[in-house]
């Protein structure tokens, strides 16, 4: 007892540790840190081979408290990040906080839907990610997001893939590093090669969508609408658009839903790749970029059937413009470095004003509803 008395004589009573608030990590750290034991007791404790018995349990309790509070705190943090990250002036800070959550291992299946909401809010505008002041932050966020992609549903992974093309690949085209530029054009070429050939239905849907006469939901159900009977009693006017969309979705078979999801994914991919071609074309005035752009544009032209009609028109104009520049170089004439990218700019404007949302397919309950939607 004499030895034990010497060891604990100057320490506060054990009940003092329990008085700190269990729900606040910061309070626990602030209350315990400023109260070290007096020098003599500390010296005697350090001389002994084993730590004081209370040290182990106290650490375990503090860690358990952190773990218990973690999921709720992470969800609340991501909800706040989602509300701020859509504002370009707050993107820098909000994206850094999201990256910290990824690095801390806080993105798991239970919190993945909230994290996806962060990414979706960041990409509400399809062009903000390419603004000079935000490029690095977008690259950092979506690069970090690749580490937790396995936590996302199939549909969410598809959207992440399309957003990655815009936020990383496209931004790499602004680089002053020829190696990075060449690597990005190489990835874009591979993605173009992986696209399926566009169908007549793809062309029709694109034409209607670009006229602003269709929404993403209506596009998915276009074929079903053809088979509907007339409404002699005018009841359609009494049914809300959301209810009609919901009833049509419920009637679709699992395979049909998978097909529609694949169509949406391909649409997003094609639009993202067109955006990359436009950005690359605008860099043609930089001499060391020209060869890589020549090869990329030629590849897009050779695979033009994989794009929809308006996209094909833009690619044809780009390739014709590049061939004109190549002819001038061969003839020893001055090269302006300016390509005809009007077709791309028009498409980019149209796509950027189109509201991108998947909320009608994946709701707040997350994977369960998504799996049901996918069949």
Automatic annotation (TrEMBL):
Residues 221-231 have a biased composition (Acidic residues). Residues 1-59, 219-261 are annotated as: Disordered. Residues 20-31 have a biased composition (Polar residues). Residues 239-261 have a biased composition (Basic and acidic residues). This is Uncharacterized protein.
């Amino acid at each position: 007892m004499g030895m034990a008395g010497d060891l604990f004589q100057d320490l506060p009573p054990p009940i003092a540790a329990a008085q700190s608030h269990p729900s606040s990590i910061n309070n626990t750290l602030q209350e315990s840190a400023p109260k070290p034991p007096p020098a003599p007791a500390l010296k005697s404790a350090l001389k002994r081979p084993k730590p004081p018995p209370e040290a182990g349990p106290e650490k375990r309790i503090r860690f358990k408290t952190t773990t218990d509070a973690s999921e709720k705190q992470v969800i609340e943090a991501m909800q706040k990040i989602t509300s701020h990250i859509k504002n370009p002036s707050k993107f820098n800070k909000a994206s850094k906080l999201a990256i910290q959550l990824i690095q801390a291992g806080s993105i798991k299946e239970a919190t993945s839907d909230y994290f996806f909401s962060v990414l979706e809010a960041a990409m509400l505008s399809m062009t903000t990610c390419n603004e000079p002041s935000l490029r690095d932050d977008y690259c950092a966020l979506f690069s970090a997001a690749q580490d937790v992609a396995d936590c996302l549903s199939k549909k969410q992974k598809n959207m992440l893939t399309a957003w990655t093309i815009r936020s990383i690949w496209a931004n790499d085209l602004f680089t002053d590093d020829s190696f990075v530029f060449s690597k990005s054009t190489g990835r874009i070429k591979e993605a173009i090669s992986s696209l399926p050939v566009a169908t007549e239905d793809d062309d029709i849907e694109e034409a209607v969508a670009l006229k602003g006469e269709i929404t993403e939901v209506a596009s998915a159900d276009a074929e079903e609408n053809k088979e509907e009977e007339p409404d002699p009693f005018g009841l359609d006017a009494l049914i809300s658009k959301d209810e009609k969309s919901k009833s049509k979705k419920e009637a679709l078979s699992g395979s049909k839903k998978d097909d529609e999801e694949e169509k949406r994914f391909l649409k997003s991919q094609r639009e993202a790749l067109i955006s990359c071609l436009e950005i690359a074309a605008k860099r043609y005035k930089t001499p060391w970029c020209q060869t890589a752009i020549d090869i990329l544009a030629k590849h897009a032209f050779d695979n033009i059937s994989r794009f929809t009609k308006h996209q094909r028109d833009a690619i044809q104009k780009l390739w014709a413009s590049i061939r004109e520049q190549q002819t001038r170089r061969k003839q020893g004439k001055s090269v302006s470095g300016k390509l005809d990218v009007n077709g791309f700019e028009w498409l980019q404007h149209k796509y950027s004003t189109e509201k991108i949302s998947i909320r009608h397919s994946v709701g707040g309950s997350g994977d369960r509803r998504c799996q049901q939607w996918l069949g």
